[in-house]
Write a structure and sequence with these properties.
The chain has no helices and 11 strands.
Length: 115
C-alpha cells in the first residue's frame, strides 16, 4: 500500500505560479511511475504530467512549456507557471506499482486561477 498526501494548492491570479507537492509513504519501493491528474466538475479526470523511475516524462499538450514534473526521494512535485483560468481544477497525485499493477491516489488539492 502507498499513501499519498498532496499540498500546495490555492488561489492564484492568471500568469502566476504554484508548486504542488505529493508525499508518498508505505511501500514506495514498488512505485514504477508517478503522475499528476486534474479534474473539473462534470468532466473526466485528465492526465497532466507523468514521470517514470527512469526520469522520462510526458505532458499534456495544454501544459507543455508551462508545467514541470519532478521527484525527489518520495516527494513528487509539479511546478506550474503562467497559470491560466483553464488550469482551475482539483489536482490529484497518482502512482502505479509493480508487480500488482495497483494504482493509488491522493485526496486532491484545489487549484483556482482567477483575478
Amino acid at each position: 500500500q502507498v499513501h499519498l498526501v498532496e499540498s500546495g494548492g490555492g488561489l492564484v491570479q492568471p500568469g502566476g505560479s504554484l508548486k504542488l507537492s505529493c508525499a508518498a509513504s508505505g511501500t514506495t519501493f514498488t512505485i514504477i511511475r508517478r503522475a499528476w491528474y486534474r479534474q473539473v466538475p462534470g468532466r473526466q479526470r485528465e492526465l497532466v504530467a507523468l514521470i517514470f523511475n527512469s526520469g522520462g516524462t510526458t505532458y499534456a499538450d495544454s501544459v507543455k512549456g508551462r508545467f514541470t514534473i519532478s521527484r525527489s526521494e518520495n516527494t513528487l512535485n509539479l511546478q506550474m507557471n503562467a497559470l491560466e483560468p483553464e488550469d482551475t481544477a482539483v489536482y490529484y497525485c497518482n502512482v502505479a506499482t509493480m508487480p500488482s499493477g495497483d494504482e493509488f491516489w491522493g485526496q486532491g488539492t484545489q487549484v483556482t486561477v482567477s483575478s
